[in-house]
Each structure stands twice: as C-alpha cells, then as structure tokens.
Amino acid sequence: MITVDALTKTYGPVRAVDGISFELAEGEALALIGPSGCGKSTTLRMINRLIEPSAGRVLIDGVDTRSIPPAALRLRMGYAIQGIGLFPHRTVAQNIATVPRLLGWPRARIAARIEELLDLFGLPPAVFAHKYPHELSGGQQQRVGVARAMAGKPAVLLMDEPFGALDPITRARLQDEFLAIRRRMGTTVLLVTHDMDEAFRLADRLAVMEKGRIVQLDTPEALLRRPASAFVQSMVGNEDRGLKLLSLAGVAALMRPAEGWAPAGEGTFRKAGGQEALAPLSASASLREAASRLVLTGVDELPVVDETGNLVGTIDMARIIAFGGGRR
Ligand SMILES: Nc1ncnc2c1ncn2[C@@H]1O[C@H](COP(=O)(O)OP(=O)(O)OP(=O)(O)O)[C@@H](O)[C@H]1O
Predict the structure, then answer these.
(1) Closest Cα to atom 1, ligand 1: which residue?
(2) CATH number of the domain that 208 lies in?
(3) Pocket around ligand 1: residues whose beta carbon is below 6 Å from it?
(4) ipTM
(5) Nearest C-alpha neighbor of 31 from the set 42, 44, 47
(6) What is the pLDDT of residues 169-183, one digit of tens each?
(7) Which of 81, 88, 185, 293 is the most exposed, fewest CB within 10 Å of its CB?
(8) How far is the CA of 234 from the centre of ligand 1 (A)?
(9) In total, how many domains does the chain have?
(10) Does 217 lie in the same domain as 135?
(11) Distance 16 CA to ligand 1 centre (A)
C-alpha cells in the first residue's frame, strides 16, 4: 500500500502541490485528474523522488520513502511517461529487460517475462523482440514503454499521460488492452491524465485536483452522481453526466428474464404477440449502448444475448432510468 501524507511542493511563492493526502491500496488504480498546472505530475514525481517534497511524506508498505535510496526506490516503481523514449540502440527485448537485469533476475526468468509481456501487449515476440524502437509505430512504442515499466513487477506503476499523442482509435484500443492486463496482473497503478474519459475507463477511483489540492476523491459513479462542487461538475461533464453514468454500468447486471421471447431467424428474436424481429444486444454492452439502441429501434424492450448468441434476458428503458435514479 502507498500512503501519501500531506505532500507539499513549493517553488518560491507557488504552492505547486499543497498538502495532498491519499492512500492507494494494493491492486487499485487511482487517477489524478485536473486542468493543466494543477500539480498532477509534480505529485507523481514526488512519489518516486524524481522531485523531492518540500513537506509531507510518502510511505510504501509503511516504510518512509526517504529511507530508501532513490535508485532502489525507482526499481520498485515502474514509470511510464508519454514521450520518454525507449533506448534507441537497444532492441525491444533489451528495453523491457532493463529493470529485471538491474534487479539481478536470472536470464531464464527475464526471457520468460519479456515473452509474457509482449504476448499480453499484442506484440508477438517472434516479430517484435529483436526490433529497434525506430522500426515501431507510435502505438507500438507506447506499448513497449508500458511493458518496460511493468517488467520488474513494480509495487506501483506510475503513469503520466502514457497514452497521449495517439489517434483516438489506437488510444482506446491501448486503454482496453492495458485494462485487461492490469486486471490480470493485479498491478497497482497511479495514473496522471487530463482526459476524464481515460480516467473513468482505467481507474477505480479518481482524485480531482484544483490548484495543488485534491477537491474530491471518489469512484467514477460517486463523482458523476454527487460532484462536490461546480468545478468538479465541470470536470466530470455537465450536459452528458447522465450518459457517462450509463457508460459505467453493464446490461448484464440489469437484465430481466426473457419470458415469452423466441428466436425469429438470422440471430433475431421476437416477443410473443410482438410484430418485429429484433436484433439482440450483447450482455457485455453498457447501459449507454442499450439506451442508444432502444432509441434508434424505437421499442421499449430489447433481447440480450451472451457471446455465443444465446438469449439470456431483456433490457428496457424503465430499468435504465431506475439505475440513473439509484433505484436498482
Ligand atoms: N521546476 C519548477 N519551477 C517552478 N514552478 C514549477 C516547476 N515545476 C512545476 N511548476 C509549477 O507547478 C505547478 C504544477 O505543475 P505540474 O507540472 O505538476 O502540473 P500538471 O497538473 O501536471 O500540469 P499538466 O497537465 O500541464 O502537465 C504549475 O503551476 C507549474 O508552473
């Protein structure tokens, strides 16, 4: 567990970070989010001592980081940052091996770790292990950057806008991949971003920062339902706050039994007494997707199928609205 206690950084009269406290549990992902200049990167860099705090402390599993030499500390903390290049004259495999080598892992363990990470990030080792950074696309380089940061099984992975400067499609794909990898590996993550959608997608909790302070620290659902101030509300979204809330929940948790529905050919289903054969929704869809399809189809109930196409339930607008009202 990481404990950040009254952490402060002053530059002359500027309080870049002003007495920040939070805890990061093992396996948790927390996002620091806020406008440019609010102190996100400075907070992150004080945690691995790239910047020394003016006051306050950081504990890692109860040990004050000031008692750990910075180089040793950084071996325990992965650091991925947009634009921090890979070592250009080292192959992908050599880049990923950097921290495990410094940690003195045996060769076989390093080789296995490289293979595991390249597989997880969708970069087949036979194709990519021996390439040099300049032979990779921007998205591939960022994947390798994150894989390198995770290689030594760090106690916490610090990420500063790691998926910035990518086109939106590549960015979304990388975010999804990273989410799956994080869940599988149980990595603890502290993420800096100014993209609220990225924070909602990747983090369990969000610390919203304004002028060096945390003004609200909550789950995405709580931030959307109960923003603590007009500033937080403007950060989480004004007009589309309800739709963002629907993005957080899945159809599967809200379905009701599909009584009276039957297959109507070509993957569609019809309700007993109903006229229309309806294309089903996937049980993995979000409530936002469900609401959109209900509106576009102009019906008040849609069939829902699992990944093999079996009918598993139905979803209707009344249930979606009840979720919005917190009555589920
Ligand atoms: N070395 C420095 N000397 C003086 N002021 C600094 C220094 N580094 C940061 N600051 C100031 O501290 C504040 C916080 O900067 P920081 O980089 O942490 O913000 P940020 O939230 O990460 O912003 P961005 O999203 O733009 O990266 C800013 O007002 C910045 O100008």
Answers:
(1) 11
(2) 3.40.50.300
(3) 11, 14, 16, 34, 36-42, 194
(4) 0.95
(5) 44
(6) 888 888 888 888 888
(7) 88
(8) 21
(9) 2
(10) yes
(11) 6
